Amino acid sequence: MTQHGEKQGETGRVTVCVYCASRPVPERYVRLAAEVGTGIAERGWRLVSGGGRVSMMGEVARAARAGGARTVGVIPRELVEREVADTEADELLVVDTMRERKGLMDAHATAFLALPGGIGTCEELFEVWTSRYIGMHAKPVVLLDPDGHYRPLLDWSRGLVESGFASRESLEALTVVEDVESALRACGVE
Ligand code: AMP
Predict the structure, then answer these.
(1) Which residues, judged by CB distance below 6 Å to any ligand atom, belong to the binding site of ligand 1?
(2) Which residue has the higher pLDDT, 6 or 68?
(3) Which domains does the chain have, with CATH numbers?
């Protein structure tokens, strides 16, 4: 994570780091990923992703590129085959560890957007969410949840405020939205 207030992006242009599923998931989620990729391109923004061609991760990058967006993929060497490295990416960064992957994705991003995903997506989301609430960065952290995929997790998180394990401010560090337009609007906020 970069420090709070540090200037992001080579040209100040929005670069959205998208976290999402890497496993086969129902078609509607793949379409959602495509919609996000297209929306990023329409705004003249850039995408940074996990650098795989599979599932939602592959689709968001394909759609972003099809719309003319620059895409950067960051993939650990040992996942190059499993997640089918996105060799079409404008920049494909092959790293040694998951930690390096996340670090480079962070360094490129001006905003983080999580789509429906599994435990890998949650791991990535929680890191940027928690580091935002403790003040290590001030980039938007957005969760796009159109159909309640994350409802149990969000209910549990709200319960932490009731029981005293989390502050209300820490929950407010995450922007939860239900449609692509709102998600991208939240990503574009300085
Ligand atoms: P999943 O949500 O489980 O489909 O995983 C989504 C993506 O998160 C996949 O590309 C995983 O390789 C990636 N991932 C899982 N754990 C980590 C981690 N600790 N650091 C970085 N990426 C991860």
Answers:
(1) 21-23, 50, 52, 57, 79, 83, 98, 101-102, 117-121, 123-124
(2) 68
(3) 15-187 (3.40.50.450)
